[in-house]
Fold each of these.
Amino acid sequence: VTESIATYAASRGAAHVAWLKDGKFTVHASAGEGDKDESVEVADVLVRIEPRAEWSQMLYEAWRLQRDFYWAPNMAGVDWNAMRERYRALLPKVGNRTELSDVMGQLISELGTSHTYIMGGDEPDRPKPIAVGSLGVEFGTSGNAVTIASILPGRPGDDDLISPLAMPHLGVTPGTVVLSIDGRPVRPDRDPYELLQDRAGKPVVLEIADDAQGNNRRTIEVVAREGDRPLLYARWVDANRRKVDEASQGTLGYVHVPDMDTEGLVEFSRTFFPQIKKKGMVVDIRDNGGGYVSQLILARIARKPWAYDAPRQGVVATYPTKVLDGPFVILIDQNAGSDGDIFPESVRINGVAPLIGTRTWGGVVGIRADKPFVDLGVSTQPEFAWFDPRKQGEAGWSVENDGVAPDIEVDITPGDRVAGRDPQLQKGIDVLLETIKKSPRSMPPLPPYPNRSKSK
């Protein structure tokens, strides 16, 4: 009948079926032949609703969804019926959908569990945000001139990490003076980003010069970015890798895993495998946003060679081949959570590596977010709980709300950040170098070749 639709609805008696596709409603007669589908325009259809009746129904539905899907059938000991009555008393005071969301949030918070979100719904119209263009630089001043103080390098070969002014053919360097943006003069008393409003993803024409006197005045055109965050992240990761490499004289590797989702798995694969010949590695999951791929990453760092391939000519290789045969350390902090909690706890359970840093977030009950309200808002129900069967009693659930404590606690103070110090990273390097010094690993010698002569 049709293809590529998300859902459909049947009329009472199933005489007609309707679906939404390409922004249009189509009605199809279930019986008869030759009937043409009817396209229904709903833009001008007015539907009468009673907001307070909807709010009451949605609050009860939020309560019922937790009752039916919350991970612990005993509602973690909370008298859930009493909570319904407590928060129902607030309904007459609710004045808009945002306040309803607040009441829902307070209701669900009585369960004291992670991953409980209230999202969307019939919210008031908000002004369309204006995206400010980014040039991947920090601006500075020199006298009466605005200069390029520094340029984020980007990452060659990655289309998502192009830094607009870092491209060599442009000839832009720290100290270059910016005279105008899109024909408007740049002055020290005005934020240059005022001139980049609504320029994200669009061509921007810059007039630049080598100095404030206008020597080598020229015009260049670049495409402004939508933000610098990816460039700043790439610079931070690459700088950390250089620190580890320099401090270890090239013997240690470094990878950062930003989440346990697509981006994290891609970043891990991109940086881990080129460094598997190192003698040890720092695996940094600080600020890890969680996800679901921790098992894949753990399987890689926990893998050790159990045999070797020795060719007649060439280099002896480990079996399996993609293995770093050396120690690891895992850097954790309070901003690593969800699957970013499960990963370090699994590392500890399997004795893979020491954990260095600060206690993780502590939220390991998963969600689906697939049951919308009548106004298409959503509340989430924590329903997939992680537990450790080695721990007795309720302690088996202990990562939830407790997080994962480090084996070696090292904090980063605001003073460290201002000064550009990273004591957690430095401790990881020190632990690895000491471990390698105490227990160096090397390729085992070849066994004697077989002798099948008859005189044996």
Amino acid sequence: MSLDLRNIDGKWLALQVRATWEIRSAYALKEHGYEGLLPLYPQKRRWSDRTKLVDVPLFPGYLFLRFDASNHTPVLSIPGILRFVGTGNAPIPVEDSEIEALQRATQAVVNYGPCAFLEVGQEVEVRNGPLVGLRGRIMRFKNKLRLIISVTLLRKSVFVEIDSYEVTAVSRPTTSPLMTHGLELEGCATPA
């Protein structure tokens, strides 16, 4: 089966990479002329003599690239890259809106980090502040509101702390015991 590269030209694709190779592979993609995206977030790391903030991948084991059919370097020949995320040998493009949301969230001066993937809750749109126009699902965690931005293909999410005055409802809330009882969701705690 031959893959028609015209269907994915200019589209964002997810790549699975070797463990701990995200930064090296993203750099190698750039060196080979590809536009890549490796969302990072600050995380406290503790050593025996000190504690330091280090940037770590939001999606460990994955990075994104905008595919360029005119680039003759095979993506899978770049060190650390294992495979395209998709079905069979056909990559599935990531929605442009999801990539834009990730880019804007990581560039804004807000608290963000990895979070459990959510499909329930009320969809909202940010109406002011640095994230105006972004859509996501809203949840409450320890008396703070969080906008959940999801990458559906990877089934992973990112939270961004927001204030209630910054959002407006887009759809009616989904009835869910998770949302109505305000339970803390594993993976949505602020990174330590």
Amino acid sequence: MAGSYPEFRWRDAELDDAALLSRLFIAGWRQTYAGLMPAALLDRLETSPHHDPSSWSRRLERRPPDRWTRILLAPDPVGFVWFGREEGRLPGYRGEIEKIYLLDSAQGRGLGRAALAASFQILEAESLSPVAIWVFDVNRRAQAFYRHLGGRPLGERALVFAEDGEEFWETAYGWPPGADLACG
């Protein structure tokens, strides 16, 4: 769990973290999807109304009590996790990791696993388990990571990016209540 990783620290995101969350999201996407998604899509992220600081401000302002945004620190911000109630797309699943991004420079040290484990602990304590996460099929590294941690494929869906008309498939991975990611 989170305590097993001495480097793991996180904090709640505040309204004044909107620009930071936007930068972390864009950097995370560009690092993760370079060569896997069209360069034009990645180049436009900063001007997208879905990823700019004002979109993050809106998310943080309307945050319901069952939705958390935490910034990962090592010791400076290196990523974030946004998680909470599953929004009805996966019957039987009550919790969801909506987004988790960790900069390449911070990967391979157990921070992603620790952030997921800590998120799962909160979701379970709030009766929001079992837990699921959606991941793009082109992101084979993340899919292997989730399978290694015990995630099981639940289903697929297509997302279309309107600007390009590009369709990308996602697979949902799920964990049962009480999943122990430390043993994955």
